[in-house]
What does this fold into?
Amino acid sequence: MSIPTIPVRPIDPSVEHALQAIVGGASAESTCSTDLAAGPWDFDTRPGYGPGSSMGDVIPTGAPRQGELPVEYREAGEDELDARICAAKKALGDRVVVLGHFYQREEVVRHADYVGDSFQLANAALEHPDAEAIVFCGVHFMAETADLLSGPDQAVLLPNLAAGCSMADMADIDQVEDCWEQLADVLGPLDEADEDGLLPVIPVTYMNSSAAIKGFVGRHGGIVCTSSNARTVLERAFERGRRVLFFPDQHLGRNTAKAIGVPLDLMPLWNPRRPLGGSSADVLQNSRVILWHGFCSVHRRFTVAQIEQARAEHPAVRVIVHPECPMEVVDAADEAGSTDFIRKAIDAATEPTTFAIGTEINLVRRLAAQYPQHEIFCLDPVVCPCSTMYRIHPGYLAWVLEELVAGRAPNRIRVSDDVAQPARVALERMLAARPR
Ligand code: 13P
Ligand code: SF4
It folds into this structure.
């Protein structure tokens, strides 16, 4: 499969430099948290996700914590870190592959061998069986996925263990097991097909979920999806089941199910803190898609009012948003799709065009730098990166790579065998469902 090459044109200013300028008073822009301009290590020893859009979210008690980053990396300047990363990568050669998600900061992305969305990076991990180490510049669930797809002797390293995903944390395995039991009480045995050969519920989890959830889905005949193949996955699930239980992102679930014609009143929300998720048995029996009560703090910031303002100021604007945005926002936009869909849509525009984009700001600024023939801006006027993606600072990347050079493999992400086996089944079903 084709994976985008590293952008040759640097972002100017990068999100990091924009934040520093805001905090230093040299920019009239605003940010959701001035604390984002600090080094992420200032927050590694505190509970919670640290500054930014996810600051209200709570890290689950079992989530890994990052230890203290050695002081030489905390105090090194940007140029020094850049040179150390380049030198360590050169020393390691083909022994290491660095993967970078589209939402990573520019200062990290420039060192990635592959840059892509979560589906593409899962494939990139699969396609490098000879690399001893895969350094995943992304968030925890992505590194877990790379561990599931890579060989047993390959080490997957997450440069900062505090890079979680607040949405993934919203579907806790105990709550999901409990939901499954409650659904069995209402719908009957969940592993028995009806007279049409359809199972009562097919569980579908978004890639943005823990390996434990992927394992649950694999054990119960379900499948993983990403934002680029969610529609194909839902259609396949309905070939085998009456209903879908979709987690953790209610918005991706609702937007995708709506696009394939599922009526909104047949999509109850499952709130894990309430009996039967907050619905009646009748509502669950009549449902087609049961939506877990999760959301992305970054994409929840986009609003219809922002789209109206963009249209008022730029009458010919093309508005493209990520399907993690709320339904009203997706409906008001011209198009919705995964991060790679957004990139391809801009790439395919032959005439100079104004684009207003509803996704994470690092990607939007990179696209604006890569496609100067177009005017590209973020719908949200506030500089607000995904705070957990932003935990991967070049200081951690330099540390991890230099540790590898020294023969050590810190921050290794390993999924236990009991979870890995069924999780792989669910992921392999996903990899077979190519995006459309
Ligand atoms: P993609 O699947 O489009 O890479 O998105 C991942 C993500 O975390 C979006 O918030
Ligand atoms: Fe998670 Fe949202 Fe960040 Fe994506 S942008 S990693 S869904 S918190």
